[in-house]
Amino acid sequence: MSRQFFSAFFVFAGVWALSACASVPHPKPAPLGMSSVKAADEPCWVSVPDCIADPAKPALYFVGQSDAPRPSWGRPTRDSLHSAQHDAEQQYARYLGVEIKSSMYLQSLFDSEQYQSQFEHTVTAHVDRQVSELYKADEYFVAHQQTSEGEPIWTVYVLIKIAEKHVKKHRLAVTEEAKVRAAAPPPPDEWVASVFNLDDGVSLYVNGTKINQCGFSQSCEIKLNPHFKKGRNTVRLDYVNRLFLWTYGYEIFKNEEIMYRGRCGQVWLFGCGDWDTRRGIVHTFEFTVEMP
């Protein structure tokens, strides 16, 4: 009997131990901490862009950073990589000291499951110039934190380089372009007519030719420059009424500055001139523009 007792005791103890182990809470995985990894893995060029410079091949280096950390499983999204690349190009733009709008065209190639990119860069200083000498030298990404689901939130850095001989060529091109722009005549003033508060409508004429019309309760913006000729140009707005009361409104802009303005009555509410119910052309506004 004692043998049966001890056997039963050991079976009971084993079951109790298993149930006790099962009830012990398992600790949650610790938040993603990358600071120590960063210290070990971060390339020197993140803080010192030219730390990998080759004295035998003089070049300039620029580092770009993605605009905002973004979550993604496995590795950063392509948008994050593009953002860092674009920022690096803008670093070069600021170095040149010119207004540059850089666009990037990517051709994705997959070879042995490794992503490669072929870049073309457009550098614009009010004219487009193809710059093929900007090269992506390296990239680095790190996640300092993660989402509540454990998805890494990545920050991306991209290193680009350009040979000093090409920098000299770009600077020369920018200097030449600046001389051309300085010698060129100023662009013509931009004229726009904005008409609104219409009851019943308006027709717009340039040099006696009707170029546009706008109807009841509408608002229209009409660019005038395409209809101008060299010298003096006459612009006329004829407001018409077909029935009952009438209203009008206009603003004439020169380079976004209001040069002429007029308004009378309020469409849907009350007419211009109290109870004036004339028909036909009820109001005309005319002005002239000199074009070089």
SSE layout:
Elements lengths: L1 H22 L11 H7 L17 E7 L4 E2 L6 H19 L6 E9 L2 E11 L3 E4 L3 E12 L5 E12 H20 L7 E5 L5 E6 L2 E6 L5 E4 L7 E11 L6 E7 L2 E8 L15 E12 L1
Antiparallel strand pairs: 1-7, 2-7, 3-4, 4-5, 6-7, 8-11, 8-13, 9-10, 9-12, 12-15, 13-14
Structure description:
By secondary structure, this protein is of the alpha+beta class. It folds into two domains: 35-183, no CATH class; 191-291, Immunoglobulin-like (Sandwich), CATH 2.60.40. It contains four helices and 15 strands. It has helices spanning 2-23, 35-41, 78-96, 164-183; strands at 59-65, 70-71, 103-111, 114-124, 128-131, 135-146, 152-163, 191-195, 201-206, 209-214, 220-223, 231-241, 248-254, 257-264, 280-291. Strands 1, 2, 6 and 7 form a four-stranded antiparallel β-sheet that branches. Strands 11-8-13-14 form a four-stranded antiparallel β-sheet, with no helix packed on it. The longest helix has 22 residues, at 2-23. Mean pLDDT is 78; it is low at 1-40 and 101-131.
Observed structural traits:
4 helices; alpha+beta; 15 strands; four-stranded antiparallel sheet; elongated; 23% helix; disordered N terminus; Immunoglobulin-like
Count the DSSP helices.
Answer: 4
- Helix and strand composition category: alpha+beta
Tell me the β content: 35-45%
> What oligomeric state best describes the polypeptide chains here?
single chain
Shape: elongated
Low-confidence stretches: 1-40, 101-131
Number of strands: 15
The rounded Rg comes to 36 Å
Mean pLDDT: 78
Secondary-structure element string: HHEEHEEEEEHEEEEEEEE
Distance between the termini: 121 Å
Largest sheet: 4 strands, antiparallel
